[in-house]
């Protein structure tokens, strides 16, 4: 501040000398009243005394606002970081849960496939048994029809032979066989 006053005094002196020299020459004006050095000193003193308080108060308020803004920004940054960490943790949990659900679904699909295959095997076995029973039934019917046909033919043949007459030795053989079959 002192150097500013010195510079002002020198500038005033230089300006005063120029004015004394008259025709554009360079000169030094040493008249204090003419150069307004006292007025400048008073104004600078008033500004320093009263301006210091106003400027200091303004700067303090500004510094407090900046500090408050910085603290708020730091707090918001911490909150954002905490929110990010919580979000990442929730994402990790959701991914783990999705993986578990996927594994359970795959296991359920395997179990369902095995159950369907087992049911299909049981159905196939039942169909085979039913088919075998139907086949046996049909075979038994066919055998029964063949027996009845053979019996009918045998009866016809026997009737025809009986009508033509049976020889005595054939009749004796027939009786012996019938007795042997009866086990007497």
Automatic annotation (TrEMBL):
Membrane topology per the entry is: Single-pass membrane protein
Q: Which GO terms describe its cellular component?
A: endomembrane system; plasma membrane-derived thylakoid membrane; proton-transporting ATP synthase complex
Pfam families recorded: ATP-synt_B
Could you tell me the keywords of this UniProt record?
ATP synthesis, CF(0), Coiled coil, Hydrogen ion transport, Ion transport, Membrane, Thylakoid, Transmembrane, Transmembrane helix, Transport
> For this UniProt entry, which segments traverse the membrane?
37-55
Show the coiled coil region(s): 77-104
Give one GO term, molecular function aspect: proton-transporting ATP synthase activity, rotational mechanism
Q: Note whether Coiled coil occurs among the keywords.
A: yes
Localization terms from the record: Cellular thylakoid membrane; Endomembrane system
Q: What is its main location?
A: membrane
Q: Which InterPro entries match?
A: ATP_synth_b/b'su_bac/chlpt
Quaternary structure and interacting proteins, as annotated: F-type ATPases have 2 components, F(1) - the catalytic core - and F(0) - the membrane proton channel. F(1) has five subunits: alpha(3), beta(3), gamma(1), delta(1), epsilon(1). F(0) has four main subunits: a(1), b(1), b'(1) and c(10-14). The alpha and beta chains form an alternating ring which encloses part of the gamma chain. F(1) is attached to F(0) by a central stalk formed by the gamma and epsilon chains, while a peripheral stalk is formed by the delta, b and b' chains.
> What protein family does this chain belong to?
Belongs to the ATPase B chain family.
- Enumerate the HAMAP family for this protein: ATP_synth_b_bprime (MF_01398)
State the NCBIfam families in the record: PRK07352.1 (NF005606)
The entry's function note states: F(1)F(0) ATP synthase produces ATP from ADP in the presence of a proton or sodium gradient. F-type ATPases consist of two structural domains, F(1) containing the extramembraneous catalytic core and F(0) containing the membrane proton channel, linked together by a central stalk and a peripheral stalk. During catalysis, ATP synthesis in the catalytic domain of F(1) is coupled via a rotary mechanism of the central stalk subunits to proton translocation. Component of the F(0) channel, it forms part of the peripheral stalk, linking F(1) to F(0).
Record's protein name: ATP synthase subunit b
Q: Which organism is it from?
A: Cyanomargarita calcarea GSE-NOS-MK-12-04C
Q: What is the lineage of its organism?
A: Bacteria, Bacillati, Cyanobacteriota, Cyanophyceae, Nostocales
């Amino acid at each position: 501040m002192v150097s500013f006053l010195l510079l002002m005094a020198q500038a005033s002196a230089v300006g005063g000398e120029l004015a004394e020299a008259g025709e554009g020459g360079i000169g030094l004006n040493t008249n204090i009243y003419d150069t307004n050095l006292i007025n400048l000193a008073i104004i600078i003193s008033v500004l320093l005394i009263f301006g210091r308080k106003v400027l200091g108060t303004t700067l303090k308020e500004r510094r407090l606002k900046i500090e408050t803004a910085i603290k708020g920004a730091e707090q918001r940054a911490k909150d954002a970081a905490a929110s990010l960490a919580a979000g990442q943790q929730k994402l990790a949990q959701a991914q783990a849960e999705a993986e578990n659900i996927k594994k359970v679904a795959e296991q359920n699909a395997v179990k369902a496939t095995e159950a369907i295959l087992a049911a299909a095997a049981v159905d196939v076995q039942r169909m085979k048994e039913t088919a075998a029973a139907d086949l046996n039934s049909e075979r038994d019917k066919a055998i029964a029809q063949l027996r009845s046909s053979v019996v009918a033919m045998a009866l016809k043949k026997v009737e025809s032979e009986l009508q033509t007459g049976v020889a005595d030795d054939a009749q004796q053989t027939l009786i012996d066989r019938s007795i042997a079959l009866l086990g007497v």
